[in-house]
Write a structure and sequence with these properties.
314 residues, six-stranded mixed sheet, four-stranded parallel sheet, 15 helices, 2 domains, Rossmann fold, alpha/beta
Length: 314
């Protein structure tokens, strides 16, 4: 497959329309006052499976030809992408296999199984995930749907920003970044729908390889993630880095304490249940107030799959 472009985002929007939710755009006067900006929250935690990831997985699954669909799909995921691919595959009647790392959030693993996927457990490292995926792909003949480097996944993720820009003209959009699927898809949507809009990617300090990569102009992959944002521990993909760099994305780094504080603000002021990997975007806006003051800012709330048992225990 060739690198995705804006036309692929438009095609993805049409392809997933019968299956994905058009999520609402939320506002909060209290958070506007804290940020000194007009904030517009794209509520992807209200998307199917509770995360934006359904968009990309849905696009990838429904773009398969009939022979590929019969042979099934395989991926690796710490949770949300696995659940998204499982649900999309279930909707098409396609077998789904998900490689999951040790230590993944139990609630996310339960969701993957509930949607009908077969789980395959491996060590925590990205290398271990990819090795097991390759073995399954070879033995089953299944199609690999990578969580963030697959061009069809990237195009699907871009549909969230496409919807957001259709509702509200924006000076900037801020999205969380881990592997870079949402960030690079958003870059494509901005390039085609609103070129004057600036793109910022928010990243935890304990997994800030995107900031390091953009700063030095080449992809940095030698790191060990240490962050509460379990959905942002993936290694920045090569295609994702190139798209972010080409579109002039700027990385904003925040620590976990700031992210947890932002998450509590969203819970208490907006009454929306989001996970840390989602709240990092608001944390970045609040921590870098000078970059956004007086502007119209879109924030993609990427997911809301909080471990309820851990939440109750806290």
């Amino acid at each position: 497959m060739t690198d995705p472009g804006f036309d692929d985002v438009l095609a993805a929007a049409a392809r997933i329309a019968p299956h994905a939710h058009v999520t609402p755009v939320l506002t909060s006067r209290t958070l506007d006052a804290l940020a000194g900006a007009s904030l517009h929250f794209k509520a992807e935690h209200l998307q199917r499976i509770g995360a934006f990831k359904f968009r990309g997985a849905c696009n990838a699954v429904w773009a398969l030809d009939e022979d590929e669909a019969r042979r099934g799909v395989v991926t690796h995921s710490s949770g949300n992408h696995g659940a998204a691919l499982a649900l999309a595959a279930k909707g098409r009647g396609t077998a789904c296999h998900v490689v999951v790392p040790e230590g993944a959030v139990p609630g996310k693993l339960a969701a993957i199984e509930a949607y009908g996927a077969t789980l395959h457990r491996c060590a925590r490292t990205i290398a271990a995930r990819e090795a097991m995926c390759a073995a399954l792909q070879q033995s089953l003949g299944a199609r690999l749907v990578h969580p963030y480097t697959d061009p069809r996944v990237i195009a699907g993720q871009g549909t969230a920003a496409l919807e957001l820009l259709a509702v509200q003209p924006l000076d900037a959009i801020v999205v969380p970044v881990g592997g870079g699927g949402l960030g690079s898809g958003t870059a494509l949507a901005i390039a085609g729908a609103s070129p004057r809009t600036k793109l910022y990617v928010a990243e935890p300090a304990g997994a800030a390889e995107t900031a390091a990569s953009l700063a030095c102009g080449k992809r940095v992959t030698d790191f060990t993630p240490d962050t509460i944002c379990d959905g942002l521990r993936g290694t920045l993909g090569a295609i994702n880095f190139e798209l972010l760099k080409a579109h002039g994305a700027k990385a904003l780094v925040v620590d976990d304490a700031a992210t947890l504080a932002a998450m509590r603000l969203i819970w208490t002021r907006m009454k929306q249940l989001v996970e840390p990997s989602s709240a990092v975007a608001l944390a970045a806006v609040l921590a870098h107030r000078e970059a956004f003051e007086g502007q119209r800012v879109g924030i993609i709330l990427s997911g809301g799959n909080v471990d309820i048992n851990a939440l109750v225990a806290a």
